[in-house]
Design goal:
single chain; alpha+beta; Deoxyribonuclease I, Chain A; 2 domains; 6-stranded mixed beta sheet; 14 strands
Length: 380
């Protein structure tokens, strides 16, 4: 072997060794992301970060797989088996399901869940005049879709009538029966909370209280659908409570503009917020899961979990329930419309008495969340 060839071989082996070291790190991260659904962040909060980063970790390992298929196929086999173990998690993010003609679903229950960010009530000009753009877009969307069951998170009712929501909704919605629960108010004028609207008679209501100062809660509404009683849960797990400066910093990082920024300080602040939220959501999720297990009726659950399908919160709440997106969704299930891409944090779930059809995630930006919608039929 000539010196030139030996040098090339040495450089190639060095490059492969470096790639192997990086791949081992990413492979360990992937394994931790698999365990994130089963380990409570109260006990080990760091593992939750691997869960939320699962799409990116999985994709990185998939790129490594392509590399090993070219250079070292025995490594590709090992990595391929590891990736195969996470396929079910991928299906919770990306789906391809049969789409049914709406005429076939005429007797189904149409369900919409939507975190409307208070209908953008705080988007006021310098003279404190309301901006109705997003509120009116949401109204137009709901007027067109006319759901049978509609669950709002971050709902607001303006008692002054200047930023009308409740009265306006009841005028055009077919689902006029409402369970409204407020957890905070501003000067007894703006009331903030949660709302479940339904066209079916409401026979009972209740709430699951969380130990939190942020006003997050789970409400439930028992409705009569023909001869069946169905319980509709409307859930909002602990928010991350990021501030405007956090969103601004994250947006700059995503765009690659980090010059003159204190990256370490800003990153530590965001990580601290995420850590606290992960830990608080864990017992909240358990409370809801325990309540659902004792429910004597078929269940429909709508909500903003503020967490992904690979999280402990999702795994806990969804135990015994079916995920309507996994059952009948199409495409990438991203529901968060903010600076962090690929985050699916809004859900419609149901008990085994139902079958889901035509799950859809909204595409129009009307909030920092997209709406989610599906049809449910009793699966006799």
């Amino acid at each position: 072997m000539t010196a030139k060839k030996a040098s090339k071989s040495k450089a190639r082996n060095f490059f492969i060794t470096v790639m192997l070291i990086f791949n081992i790190i990413f492979a360990i991260a992937l394994i931790l992301s698999y365990f994130a659904a089963y380990v409570s962040p109260e006990k080990f909060w760091m593992i939750a970060f691997f869960g939320i980063a699962f799409p990116y970790i999985f994709l990185s390992n998939f790129i490594f797989l392509a590399f090993w298929l070219i250079f070292k196929r025995k490594y590709a086999l090992i990595l391929g088996l590891l990736l195969l173990a996470g396929v079910f998690n991928v299906f919770k993010i990306i789906q391809s399901s049969k789409k049914y003609d709406v005429k076939e679903l005429s007797n189904a229950i149409k369900v919409i869940s939507f975190n409307v960010r208070n209908f953008d009530i705080y988007n006021q000009d310098k003279h404190w005049n309301y901006n109705f753009t997003f509120r009116n877009r949401i109204f137009a969307f709901l007027k067109k879709e006319q759901p049978d069951i509609l669950c709002f998170q971050e709902y607001v009712h303006d008692a002054t009538g200047k930023f009308n929501t409740t009265d306006s909704l009841k005028k055009f919605l077919h689902a006029k029966n409402a369970n409204l629960v407020y957890t905070a108010n501003s000067r007894n004028m703006n009331y903030f909370g949660y709302a479940t609207y339904t066209r079916y008679p409401i026979i009972d209501t209740g709430r699951i209280e969380f130990k939190t100062v942020s006003g997050n809660i789970c409400i439930y509404t028992d409705v009569k659908i023909n001869s069946d009683t169905v319980r509709v849960y409307n859930l909002h797990l602990e928010s991350i409570r990021m501030k405007s400066e956090d969103y601004w910093f994250a947006d700059r990082v995503v765009q690659g503009y980090t010059q003159h920024l204190d990256v370490e300080k800003n990153s530590e602040r965001i990580i601290s917020r995420l850590k606290n939220a992960f830990a608080i959501r864990a017992p909240q999720a358990q409370l809801v899961a325990d309540h659902i297990k004792k429910c004597p009726y078929p269940v429909i659950l709508c909500g903003d979990f503020n967490d992904t399908p690979t999280s402990y919160a999702y795994h806990t709440v969804s135990s015994g329930l079916k995920d309507a997106f996994v059952e009948s969704g199409n495409g990438i299930g991203q529901t968060y419309a903010g600076v962090f891409p690929l985050l699916r944090i809004d859900y419609i779930m149901h008990s085994k008495e139902f079958k889901a059809y035509n799950f859809e995630t909204g595409t129009e930006v009307m909030s920092d969340h997209y709406s989610v919608m599906c049809y449910l039929k009793f699966d006799k």
